[in-house]
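ENTRY TYPE: paired fold submission
RECORD: A
CONTENT: sequence, then structure tokens
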Amino acid sequence: MDYLLAVDDGSRVGALRFRDEEGIFRRAPEAGCRTAPPLLELRQIQDASRAVEEGTETAADLTYLRGRGTSLGGLRPKCTVLDEDGALAIGKFPSVQDERPITKGEVLAMHLAKAAGINAAETHLVDSDGVPVALVRRFDRTPDGKRRMYVSAATLLGVERNDSEDHSYTEIVDALRVHGAAVQADIEELWRRMAFSILITNVDDHLHNHGFLHAEGDLWRLAPAFDLNPFPDRVRELKTWVSVETGPAATIEALMSVIAYFRVGARRAKEILRAVERAVNSWRKTGRALGLTDRELDQFAEAFEHPERKAAQMAVR
């Protein structure tokens, strides 16, 4: 409870909030005050976060960071900030342990996702005194700042945090058929995202990296895609399996084996896969447009150039 109540009320995920016995929201900002910092404070946040990572933080660093973190999970340094339009966004910083430009890779993946026809969160790079920060617009807020109810796929499936069982995309399909407000549209979108993850080696696709926004009543819609990252140094196995039958294999064969379960016709599946493969094929061109150097792009090459790309090209012929 101490951790839950210490988080800034304005940046809590979705519409979840906490009130005390007197009906007062805990950690709500006072009138005329803000808690989420503006972009101009990114450098200060970065410096304080890096000090914590390196174990050299001071009391001043911790005092500054208190309330500027988020209740979002993940291992990478991040915080809630106000973007150029004054909307809530997540700022993701490079880590001292990074061996490649991770933040640039995520922004590249998010731009490729949009090119592939995926509904992805608005993401762009911000230069903070030479430090590349990935800025992701929060989609659990409306344009006028109101909160939108959000749950992860783990919550929708009733999966506990310490659950050790393997789970699959077909389970998410089952949940959508029960709780979905636009069932077939979201199932097809989910299949498109699977194809994209396979082709960019996004193998950190666990259930907390899929989410849903409330539509009406007890119905939900698939939230915009987020946390898409190319992993050139990882084994090509998905955290969320395509199905129980395929296991963790991140292959086009596994992807195509479930089109009937997803009720995606063979012709439509080829159309989607063709669009995704074409978008991924432009990864170097898109990366250069985003400011990545050839050397930086080379560090991601194995995530984009692999046999499954060829398999996708063969599958759509």
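RECORD: B
CONTENT: sequence, then structure tokens
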Amino acid sequence: MIKETEFTGHLNTTHLNRKVYIVILNHKGALDTIECLESILKLNYFNYQVIVVDNSEIELPFQTLLNWGLLKKIKFDHTDEKKLNLFINQNQFVFVKAEKNKGFASGNNIALNAILKSKEIDSYIWLLNNDTAVDKESLKAQISYLEMNQNSKIGILGSKLIYYYKQDTLQAVGGKFDKNFYISSHIGEGESIYKTKSEFEKIDYVIGASMFVRYSFLKEVGILSEDFFLFYEELDWAYRAKKKGWSVDWSLESQVFHKEGATIGSSYNPKQKSFFSEIHIFKSRKIFVKKYYKLGFKFYISSVLLILNRVRKGKFKLGLELLKITFYK
């Protein structure tokens, strides 16, 4: 149930019937994606179209998704990325096969570009990780929050992310960016889900597992930056948003349960970090710093300290690769 204390202003209930595009990127995680879709089917909101983009290098995950649609007897379309425009605003579910895996931003942008061409100017867009499950009130809560806080010009709205396997504990309510070490961290990680919003510091960016935007924001700020294969794209989006006068925020009443790192290995839990995720964090970090700051003394010193911390833990091969990324690539 939506709490009145979270909002300022008066809610126009006609906004609670606007079109919502729900975008999910699948990469070899069809079973997680199906669980996410099952939770979407239980939403207390019905005017939506789900666009699932599969950028797996193999065919099996995409076929698994299609088989799910047949078993559930839902109306769906399936196509490739070049023909997606033909199916916007058709059946409630669309499964899209990407030509190639070009990363998180590129995969989501297949759907975002098609949505922009739809010219549904009053619509919303919800980017969801495939390893999430959503509370039935989560979508309506986000719409209500945006509409009741229009004076804040909120560009990107996040959800209260809760650990899927520990549902009394927060994964995050948003992210914080450390300008000394050029690293990001989660706000609210490990805290109780019962904490009030006023107990958390202001967020710098919305975690990529759940990002909710208006069509007008997408039109003005643009799609996700494909400079990044993985990581830092949501921080980049927040920086671009703020340059255009938009803010970022999160909804206390929108609950999303996140398995975190199911596809690529957690980027925040030190016990679950994969070699793959560590490499891409450093690559994207360097791109981000070069784009918004500079690759100067502070960048290189902070990078060396971060690498030494990994070497201290016995990750010698990783440390060598990170040194190459920092100084040579």
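NOTES ON RECORD B: DSSP finds nine helices and twelve strands in the chain. The CA atoms of residues 11 and 148 lie 6 Å apart.
STATUS: closed
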